[in-house]
Description:
mainly alpha; 17 helices; about 70% helix
Amino acid sequence: MVMKSYKNFSEILLGIAIFYQIFITSYWQTVYTSHIWQGIGYFIYLILFFIMLFFFYKGKFKLNQLLYFFICIMITIVFLVKGDSYIGTLFLIGSYVLILNVEEVLKVYFVSVLTAFSIVAMLSLAKVFPLTTADGTLVFGFRNQNTAGFYIALVFIIYLTLRWQLRNTVTIILGLVLSFFLIKALNDFTAASIILVDILFYVLDKSFHAIYKWTLVRWLIVASPILLTAITFWIGFNYTRYSILSTLNVIFTSRPMIWNYYLTQYPLSFFGTNLGEVTFNTIGNGAFDGAYAYYALVHGMFAFCIIIIILTKSLITVSKSNNVKMISLMMTLIVAAFSENIPFTGFQSPLLPIAILISVMDNRILRFK
């Protein structure tokens, strides 16, 4: 009973951490620039760290699971010392969720993201934060429409995953309405695609079980992080060589051109390359999107390779479990990371924390209704 109470507390604390980070990285960060807000975030993460140590001290874990846990902690410390808080907090959250299961993690993200988005959106409606950009695009109090759009899409696909067994027509209609809204009001085709692809998996669940038996399909799913990395780098380094890539540049809103600029102007390094403040305004209006290019260059090949290995290993586990809803959730976010950075950010998306959880623990954590 005591351990269960502590576990409930651990879920609440994780939820507070996610909520707080989403809230202060909204337009709040532009208005209130004091370092105290960042300090509060670090204090919350410190509490997470000690709660996590308590559970690993009291709990029963296999030797290899403890080894993975300590590796995650060491990665966290190394990157926090180097000043890379994104990678440091990513692996801290990844270590922390090892005391939970997939369903619990998804519920925490669902409640936290929905609550944070709702409060920021209400503040924007109350004109505390900007509701729109200068050109009239809705941002709901966030710094760009893609962030707002991603949160809307994420809340929906997590909800769909948690209620996968309920074949609800209303849910499908809601998803289609949200997709239309994201395209028309936010001009966010990526977020709309996230919802539409997940709905497609949802509707074709039984058919997908049959398709999933094909060896080629399994291999493509498992290898998808590596394939998307290869495609990103090939486009980035060959953008000026092939005219067809100019067409892709229009489709992906200048991302191939931006990848080419940064990948050819700045070297890939072990712990990441500092691009500087001025550089981000040089091309693409500061928008260096596409996690497979951005994380490799900015956060370094060491962290990036670990992320790709974790994603691949987790997909192998999910593949063996034939869990369509988890395949759908993970693949949707993995593909979304091709054009956006947010799916790889630990406090904004459950993708990598869940991937770490699945990689370290056995497939029993995937069993939920």
